[in-house]
Structures are given as structure tokens and as C-alpha cells.
Amino acid sequence: MNKTLSVALSSLLAMGSIGGMAAEPDEAILAGAWSNEQVQAIAAKTLQVYLPLVPDALTEPERAAAAELLAAGQRLHDVYLRQLHPQALAARDALARHPELVNHAALFRVMNGPIATTLDNDRVPFLGVDPQTPARNVYPPGATRAALDAHFAAHPDSRAALLDSRSIVEAATPDNVRAAIATLDEHPALDLLHPGLRARLTAAVGGYLSVPYSVAYADDILFVYDRLNAAAALLDERDPAFARYLRLRGRDLLADDYDGGDAAWVTGRFSGNLNAQIGSYETYDDALYGVKTFFSLSLLQRDAARSAELAASIGDIQAIEDALPYASDRRVNSDIPVGVYNVMADFGQARGTNTASILPNESHLAQQFGRTILIRANILTEPHLFAGSERAFVAATVDEHRGDLSPEGGLYRTLWHEVGHYLGVNRTRDGRELDVALQDTADLLEEMKADLVSLFAARQLHDRGAFDDARLRAVYADGIRRVLQKTRPRRDQPYQTMQLIQWNWFLDRGLLTADGGRLRIHYERYDEAVSSLLAAVLELQAGGDRGAANQFVERWTRWDESVHGAVARRMRETETTRFTLVRYEALGEKP
Ligand SMILES: [Zn+2]
Q1: Please, what is the Cα angle at 478 between 477 and 481, to 5 degrees?
Q2: How far is CA 106 from CA 36, 47, 112, 292, 476, in A?
Q3: Is the separation of the CB atoms in 441 and 498 below 8 Å?
Q4: I need a surface site. Which of 136, 195, 249, 382 has the fewest CB within 10 A?
Q5: 120 confidence band (pLDDT: 50, 70, 90)
Q6: How far is the CA of 416 from the centre of ligand 1 (A)?
Q7: Mean pLDDT of 374-402
Q8: Is the pLDDT of residue 19 over 50?
Q9: Nearest to 9 by CA among 302, 231, 252
Q10: What is the rounded distance in angstroms from the CA atom of residue 198 to the CA atom of residue 360?
Q11: 515 C-alpha vs ligand 1 centroid, how far in Å?
């Protein structure tokens, strides 16, 4: 562990310690705790992943800036826990006061709060707290869709503010109104940055209030604002574009509007070794309307060698575009905002084993500035995660393929999948947007195109000397691993469905053959199988006929229990863990 980082971090964490939450009596929380046996049953199914720091990857000012950003991340992680469950922080603090419950504390970490997913896939409290509700803690306790829909029907004007992606919904009680206004009085910056909010709060009677995140979590957000500005001040000289992004993002968090920071993030040319995803972006945790975003922070360290290699091979993407199996004179931009990073630490909604981040989501920002792509190399090549993939691959294929897979294969296949989104058909032949023309099938085709362009590009990169034979074979093997399914996909699962289509196409073209409940790979047929399916996908996108696209999906998603079912069963039997606990050297944690 590097000393400067850990010392600076611990002092910042002490500064940032939580106050303000009403303390729950520990007895009630602990009285409802699972037995040690129950906790152990989940622990036995939990994979432990440790992410070490890359030594000497940061300059001295970057190490100091990283400590500030890690402190900001810890604080946003607390906000995330609070967004998920009203008693999450009280439960965590109760566990901290009872070191004998160390296993429960580990479970709390795996589950991001006091609600566990059981081995039967139920969600139940493992401490004495209220059960999880769809309202989480971003709508009033007990809120239902029926009640809110009825409110929107009676007050249509309130809908946009209440379903804003960066605000919580509260009951419009006099106490809640008073508390929100008191926050604006205490922090004039928040008042200034939310024109009209004070008047809306004052006028609210009965029904619901929309309270922006910066007001609902004011102390936390202002703490994070200070940390981002402190980090920026340390980087002004060596990485001015990153410093500008951090300052803008700090202001974004106070305003609950990320346009400025996102523009600086996506289009900035950072000259140092750090990058960071900061704020609330993804809506997966909102079980009521799917619109509320949840907080995260990822601190990333540039993988200089791989980023340089990527930049060099991206110089050739016009040649790859020109070689794609469709008629086009499209000119592509080789200035794609993609970089290869190692995760230092993930916080909040981002904690886990994500392999790539692609943001922002809002279409007006994506259209104006593009989206930044952050490939996470140390997750893609993490030995335990790779071992799980390899076990499934070995179970699914005949013995001769043992050893075909390598961590590098997954890394380069994923990397070129992301670049693949920038190549090929981007509008229908008659000029319509793909989303508009193909609707619910647009995503499936776009993801399949990116998968296939990656495999197609691997051959091109090999032929011009950028990939050696071993890397080409590893990317090809990972292309097969990727499409094999452990369960039959539902049609509403676009990724799994397009993977099954590839599996079936590869069987049809003789790239794969069934062999005693397993699969044999005929690599000599790889290029033809990939090119022909890619040509079909590009034609469906260019044609823009949703009916034809759905027919294609229907035709290529058959599932034969004696072929697919047999392979799926063998793969399922290799699963040893279901949950993951990630620890980070950057946070001073031990393996
Ligand atoms: Zn994709």
C-alpha cells in the first residue's frame, strides 16, 4: 500500500464522518439478525476479489488528488446506501459497534445494505430492519405506483418535477417543507442554483414534494464538492483538462444538472493518469418508475501501455470500416473517447465487477458530445473472475479446447466491441434513426453488430500485425464463450437473445458442432461465420424494417434441449459462487 495515499485518505475520512442520521436503537436491529449459519451459507457462495494498486502509476500530486477523490467516493457510497434503504446507515453503524458480528458486516458489504438476496433468490432483511419496498428510500415510505399515478392524473403539472431523475419524492408535510427550506436558507448556493425551487416548496400543500438530491443530501454533496475542488487544485498544472472537469462536476452536483461536467468529461483530453466517473447516472435501482438515478464514483488509473496500443490501432479504423461486409462510403472519426484503465476503487452503484463504463446516457448529451468509454482492464483480467469463465468454457467445449481462453482474449474482445459501436450502419438506408425504425429490436441488433465487428476487426488487426496468433485465437475463443448461455434467454433480454442468435448461426455455419453434449470449435470456419452474420445484421439495420428484424430474431432463437440444454446444464454445474465481494488496496484493505 502506498503510504501517502492511505495516510491522506484516513485523515479525510475522519473529516467526513457521518452525522445527522437519527440513531436507531441497536437492540432492535441486532435482535432481528440472522444466525451465523444463515450468514455462512451466503458467505460460502461469495467470490472474494481483491484489486491491488498498480505500483508507481501515479505522480505525487495525483496520489494526493486520488486521496481526495476516494474520500468523495466513500461519502457518495453512504448516500447510495441511504438511497436504497431508510435504515441502511443505522444498520451499518450498529454493526460497527458490534465487532463480534464481523460476518454480518461482510454480508452487509456484499449486499450493499441490510437486505440479502437468498440462495432461493428472495430479498429479505438479515438484520432487524423493515423489508425492502419498491419505493426504496427515494419515494415516501410505502409509496405505490397506483397512489402516485392517481396523483399525476389529478395534478398532471406535478409529474415532470416528481419524476426528475435527480430528486427524491417526499410527502408534502409541513415538517418536510420546513426542512427543505431550512436547507436553502443554510446554503444560499443551493437556493441560487435551483431557480423556482423555494417558491415550489412554499406552495406545496398536500400530496408530494420533489426535493433535489443536492438539497436532500446537502451535507454530503457539499463535502464532495469540497473534495473535487481540492483534487482539481492539485492537478491544475499537470492535468488541466481533468482539473476543469472536476470543478465543473462539483458545480453539477450542487445544481443536479450534469451537462457542463459531462461535456468536459467526454471531450476533454486528459494528460495525466487519473479518470473518474462521479455522480448519479444509472436508474437500475429504482423499482417504482425506473427514473431515479443512484450515486456512484469510480476512481480509475490509466493503463498507459494498453491505452497507447489502442490509440495506435484505432488509427486504422477507417480500413476496418471499409472492409465491413456492406456497401457504404462512410467516413469514420478515429478520435473516439475510449481509454483502458485499472479500477482503483468503485463506490455506490458502481461497486462490483463492471467491465466497461459508457456514459452519459441522456441522448441530448450523447448527440452533442458523444459518450466516453472506460475499459476496466484489471476487472477483465482478474484471475478469479477469469477462472469462473474458464470453468464454464471448459465444461461447454471438448477437451481439445482447454487452454484456448485467456484473460487477454476477453480484454481485447470487449475493447473492440466498444469500438465496434462506432462502425457500420448508423442510420437506415432512407435516413431514419435506428432506434426510431427498429424500436425494441434496435438495441439487440446494435449489440450483436458490436460483438461481430469486434471479431471481424480481430482478423484485420491480426493481418496487419497488431494482434499475434495467440491473441487472435484468444479473442476468437472468447467470442465463443460469450455466446454460450447457462439458461434459455427470454425475448426481453436483448444481450442474451443476440448471443443465442450467434450461437445458432455458428452451429448452422459449422463453426460449432455438437459433440456428445459438448461443443467443438472449427476455427477455420470462423471468418466466414462472422462475416456472413455481420452482413445479415448490417442489412437488417440498413433496411430499418422492424417486422423483418423480428422475423430474423424469431428464426434464429430456437433452443434444442439436447444441444443447448445439455451445454447449459454442464456450464451451470461449474458455478461455485453467486455473489462477489470486492476489496481494494486503494482503500487500505488487505487481500
Ligand atoms: Zn455494447
Answers
A1: 95
A2: 12, 12, 10, 27, 38
A3: no
A4: 195
A5: confident
A6: 10
A7: 96
A8: no
A9: 231
A10: 29
A11: 31
Contact 272, 297 (CB under 8 A): no
Q: How far is the CA of 532 from the centre of ligand 1 (A)?
A: 20
pLDDT tens per residue, range 500-541: 999 999 999 999 999 999 999 999 999 999 999 999 999 999
Cα distance between residue 236 and residue 238, in whole Å: 6
Helix (H, G, I), strand (E, B) or coil at 49: strand
Q: In this predicted structure, what is the pLDDT of residue 211?
A: 98
Q: How many Cα atoms are found within 13 Å in the side-chain-facing hemisphere of 51?
A: 26
Assess contact for 523 and 476: CB atoms under 8 A. Answer: yes
CA of 418 to the centre of ligand 1 (A): 6
The rounded Å distance from CA 474 to ligand 1 centre is 20
Using H for helix, E for strand and C for coil, what is the string for 413-462? HHHHHHHHCCCCCCECCCCCEHHHHHHHHHHHHHHHHHHHHHHHHHHHHH
On whether the CB atoms of residues 550 and 497 are closer than 8 A, the answer is no
**Which residues surround the ion ligand 1 when the cut-off is CB under 5 Å?**
447, 450
Place of cell 458502481: 350
**Other Cβ atoms within 10 Å of 562 Cβ, number:** 9
Strand pairing partners for 346?
298
pTM: 0.89
The per-residue DSSP string of 223-276 comes to HHHHHHHHHHHHHTTT-HHHHHHHHHHHHHHHHT--HHHHHHHHH----SSEEE
At 567, list the grid cell.
451445454
Q: What pairing do the DSSP bridges indicate for beta strands 294-302 and 274-282? A: antiparallel
Cell 406552495: give the residue. 203
- Give the cell for residue 298: 469510480
Q: Evaluate the CA torsion angle 258, 260, 265, 267 in order and state its sign.
A: positive
Ligand 1 midpoint to CA 356 (Å): 9
Looking at every residue in the chain, the average pLDDT score rounds to 93
In this predicted model, what pLDDT tens digit does every residue of 287-332 receive, in sequence order? Answer: 999 999 999 999 999 999 999 888 888 888 899 999 999 999 999 8
